[in-house]
Amino acid sequence: MAHRLRDVRAAAEQNLILVLTGNLHNRLVIGTRWNPQYEPMGYLLEKLLGSETELVSLRITHSGRSAWVCTGSAATDCGVRELDGKDDLPMGIELFADSEHAAFSGRLHVGPISASPPAKN
């Protein structure tokens, strides 16, 4: 993913490219709770782009409700799941100024969410 996005960026005439991924893919630091060596796409892309390109990675948060979630690779592992969220956050974007949040540049809080099944099973 990182190499493909680097190539898209190199060929683009625009100054801004918006990429939508899940919160695991867009992390800017190595490691997760379950794999300390995991190198997310955001981390790799930042290395590939270097300092000449500003990369902003936003962690998506929500107020909960429901989402279509797959917990495994089988079709039966997918379905509507009820989710808890964060009701105390303001809607919109908050950019982080401290290194405590090094995994992301900021947060995008979208409010309540609702499940949408896939367009094609």
Structure description:
This protein is 16% helix and 20% strand. The protein has a domain at 2-55. A 3-stranded mixed sheet has the order 1-5-4, with no helix packed on it. The chain has a two-stranded antiparallel sheet with strand order 2-3. The radius of gyration is 16 Å and the shape is globular. A hairpin with a 7-residue loop joins strand 2 (65-70) and strand 3. The chain has helices at residues 2-11, 41-49, and strands spanning 58-61, 65-70, 78-83, 92-95, 106-109.
Can I get a quick summary?
The chain is of the alpha+beta class and 121 residues long. Helices cover 16% and strands 20% of the residues. A hairpin with a 7-residue loop joins strand 2 and strand 3.
